[in-house]
Design a protein that fits this description.
binds flavin-adenine dinucleotide; alpha/beta; 21 strands; binds 3,4-dihydroxybenzoic acid; 397 residues
Length: 397
């Protein structure tokens, strides 16, 4: 077995792991990333598109923001459509903030390239990654690469390995509590090189279900529709998708829909999931490794970013000031923001999807009434907008 050493060992080269690694490096904190798959495989996951300014600020601090700041689109508004009623939420006017539309694939690629440029070590296709002795002062990770066994000694382990990773499983079952709600539908997403149906995103709901019109640029659209969980991707030809998507858009927008061949099409399940606590000894869960939200509120990646911000501040304090006590602040600070994001995502999901067969006519009337109450009052629009652009990050004590 070959032995290596670093200060912070990061498991997972998704957006959480890459962002954390670059930020730590800026503070002179040595780190190595272990990733199960290839870089190209990581870049094959389309996923998020909306970045809060808090996230963007961190990317700038990490030194990987050049493309995001030139190619990303600043959106000062989003739209909600309920049947054929359309309401624009003027984010900037309501909150003083906007969001950036820039794809997860692009931001991941930018951070990968920056990491490579700085000569920071990322081990792709690392198999059998396993943290050990995480409660001790001398934690380590074992893994294999090209048939060779390695031991990576470190001070801290950041579990940035997503929902199916190994890090969360390392916390003993009697220490962690998991909260979960699985929704009975998935999101079918389609990417196409066509002009977006609308200058801003449209979150739409009608009797046929939910649809989201998003984009990556003025020439690339990213659209989603709610589909039954049992549906398979083979059930959905491009034509079937376009037909259904069009029917879920408000009538006044339909004439602006341009169809085109899909360049990607996939179905993702939707769930809310939270693990408490997010720290166990010298192991920290970051991003999807510790929590998942349904995509409706565009919060998953943004919550990952606030976890990274908290852990980064803690690691800086540990290494610059020798204050090891502050590591206990990670879980409570991160969880406070996470539960807010979970609540917002749950609320948006509940309100904008048709799924609860147990709901009766009264419940449906209440849903309509709630949506119109929030969208028709300025105070209501502000409540949604404040959360959509992202709540502030909490500082360490
Ligand atoms: P991941 O991206 O899952 O990365 C984890 C990495 O760890 C992966 O590369 C994986 O291969 C690696 N790994 C796993 N196990 C191991 C192991 N044992 N050893 C080594 N490596 C391992 N969020 C938003 O904020 N805004 C949005 O608009 C938005 N839209 C979304 C739309 C869709 C359709 C979906 C599905 C998600 C969306 N999200 C959105 C959520 C967002 O994509 C995730 O929250 C984000 O990917 C989390 O990043 P992460 O780095 O924590 O985890
Ligand atoms: C996108 C995804 C989301 O979940 C969302 O709420 C907004 C945009 C997107 O992929 O563009």
């Amino acid at each position: 077995m070959e032995t290596k050493k670093t200060q912070v060992a990061i498991i997972g080269a998704g957006p959480s792991g890459l962002l954390l690694g670059l930020l730590l490096d800026k503070q002179g904190i040595d780190n190595v990333i272990l990733e199960r798959v290839t870089g190209d495989y990581v870049l094959g996951r389309i996923r998020a598109g909306v970045l809060e300014q808090g996230f963007a600020k961190l990317v700038r601090e990490a030194g990987a923001a050049e493309k995001m700041d030139t190619l990303g689109e600043v959106h000062d508004a989003v739209e909600f459509a309920f049947n054929n009623d359309r309401v624009e939420l003027k984010l900037e006017e309501l909150t003083g903030e906007d969001v950036i539309v820039y794809g997860q694939v692009d931001i991941t690629k930018d951070m990968m390239e920056e990491r490579e440029k700085r000569g920071l070590e990322t081990v792709y296709e690392a198999t059998k990654v396993q943290p050990h002795e995480v409660k001790s002062e001398t934690p380590y990770i074992t893994y294999e690469k090209d048939g060779v066994k390695y031991k990576l000694e470190c001070d801290y382990i950041a579990g940035c390995d997503g929902f199916h990773g190994v890090s969360r499983q390392t916390i003993p079952e009697d220490v962690r509590t998991e909260y979960e709600k699985v929704y009975p539908f998935g999101w079918l997403g389609l990417m196409a090189d066509v002009k977006p149906i609308n200058p801003h995103l449209i979150y739409a709901k009608n009797d046929r279900g939910f649809a989201l019109a998003s984009m990556r640029s003025q020439t690339r659209s990213r659209y989603y529709i709610q589909v039954p969980l049992e549906d398979k991707i083979e059930d959905w030809s491009d034509e079937a998708f376009w037909d259904e998507f069009e029917k879920r858009m408000p009538e006044s927008a339909r004439k602006n829909l341009t169809r085109g061949p899909s360049i990607e099409k996939s179905i993702v399940p939707t769930r809310s999931f939270i693990c408490e606590p997010l720290q166990y000894g010298n192991l920290f869960l970051v991003g999807d490794a510790g929590h998942i939200v349904p995509p409706t509120g565009a919060k998953g990646l943004n919550l990952a970013a606030s976890d990274v911000a908290t852990l980064y501040k803690i690691m800086t304090k540990v290494y610059k000031e020798g204050d090891k006590k502050c590591i206990e602040q990670y879980s409570p600070i991160a969880l406070r923001r996470i539960w807010n994001g979970v609540r917002f995502s749950w609320w948006m999901t509940d309100l904008l999807h048709n799924f609860d067969e147990t709901k009766d006519e009264f419940d449906r009337k209440m849903e309509t009434s709630e949506l119109s109450f929030f969208l028709k009052s300025e105070a209501g629009r502000k409540v949604i907008a404040e959360q959509y652009v992202g709540l502030p990050y909490e500082d360490l004590k």
